[in-house]
Specification:
This protein has one domain (about 1-329). It has twelve helices and twelve strands. The chain has helices at about 20-35, 60-70, 110-120, 130-135, 140-150, 165-175, 190-195, 195-205, 240-255, 255-265, 285-290, 310-329, and strands at about 15, 50, 55, 80, 85, 95, 95-100, 185, 215, 225-230, 235-240, 300-305. The longest helix has 19 residues, at about 20-35. The two termini are about 25 Å apart.
Length: about 325
């Protein structure tokens, strides 16, 4: 299960890391946000400004409710989020068990699954990712990957074609429930927590959350861009300072304690540790959902380092995956 949000490993050269190490880096992230913001989010915006944010579907519920709350401030009346758009980012089978993932070529969680396969095959924990594991010409590795996405009878499955993690979990796995052929899905911890009560109400039972032996912290940081690409003119367009200022203001808003508590309620681990959010509090969803397997500090799970996951590794993984995918169609 890829966990979200969190921090991708930074300057440490260790193959595996603990949850506390990774989460502590969020303090520095928040410090940088305050340093570059320049002013509080409650500042007035006298001109009409449009903020464009691209986000993954797993964050849709939180962002939409926070936009509504943000706009209640009279000082933000000239801001619009008309182009707030979700990014459609885009399993396994064996022993009569079928797991579903998103498409590794189109989805962060799908690619993370593929990356963890490479770490497992390459013996991660003995110094990092084995480059041979991700080499497109490594027949042994890619045959194992293919088997992961193929039914026991040798026929291909449709268990990787969904491009959005939120869509896969909410609109297929959760909707169909135990009556479907889904043995499980590889998803984000936040989605598993967010929809646990819904599953209980819809199907009379919830699912079971299982943390893998190896996992990654899937960090989706908030970036304020200096420029955008104009598809009509096919040119790069520099963004006005007022738009960047508005985007930074919304970022600061999201990092405040009230918004961080709202994120926690939806299963996200706090991105701002200085907000004083305690995931071990009695009313925390991490505590309330312990019965289905949710853990505040997953025992036995090691978070693999992504220091070696550069352009070459990513390119090899995607090249190899496309070759495998072509044989499954």
């Amino acid at each position: 299960m890829a966990r979200n949000p969190g921090r991708w490993p930074g300057g440490h050269r260790r193959p595996c890391r603990g949850a506390d190490d990774v989460q502590q880096e969020a303090v520095q992230l928040y410090g940088n946000a305050k340093q570059y913001a320049g002013q509080a989010w409650r500042s007035l915006f006298p001109e009409k400004v449009e903020i464009c944010i691209a986000y993954g579907t797993e964050k849709e519920t939180w962002l939409k409710q926070e936009v509504e709350r943000f706009m209640k401030n009279p000082g933000n009346k000239n801001l619009t989020f008309e182009n707030l758009t979700k990014v459609e980012q885009g399993g396994a089978n064996g022993n009569f068990t079928t797991f579903y993932t998103t498409n590794p070529d189109e989805s962060n969680s799908g690619f993370s699954t593929l990356l963890l396969m490479a770490y497992e095959f390459g013996g991660a924990g003995r110094g990092g990712l084995d480059a041979n594991a991700v080499n497109p010409r490594n027949t042994e590795f890619w045959n194992k990957v293919k088997a992961f996405y193929t039914a026991p009878d040798g026929k291909s499955l449709n268990n990787w074609k969904v491009a959005s993690t939120g869509t896969l979990f909410r609109d297929t796995f959760l909707l169909n429930g135990p009556a479907s052929d889904y043995s499980g899905v590889v998803t984000y911890e936040s989605l598993a927590i967010q929809y646990a009560d819904t599953a209980q109400k819809q199907h009379g039972q919830s699912y079971r959350v299982v943390y893998p032996a190896r996992s990654v912290m899937s960090d989706n940081p908030y970036y304020v861009l200096n420029a955008t690409y104009d598809a009509a003119t096919k040119k790069t367009v520099m963004l006005p300072e007022k738009e960047k200022k508005a985007a930074i203001a919304f970022m600061q808003f999201l990092l405040e304690p009230e918004q961080q508590r709202a994120a926690l309620a939806l299963g996200f681990r706090p991105g701002n540790l200085q907000a004083g959010i305690d995931i071990n509090a009695p009313d925390s969803p991490f505590i309330r959902q312990k019965e289905i397997g949710v853990q505040t500090a997953p025992a036995g799970t090691r978070f693999v380092s992504t220091n070696n996951v550069g352009e070459t590794v990513i390119g090899n993984l995607l090249t190899g995956w496309k070759a495998v995918e072509a044989t499954l169609k």
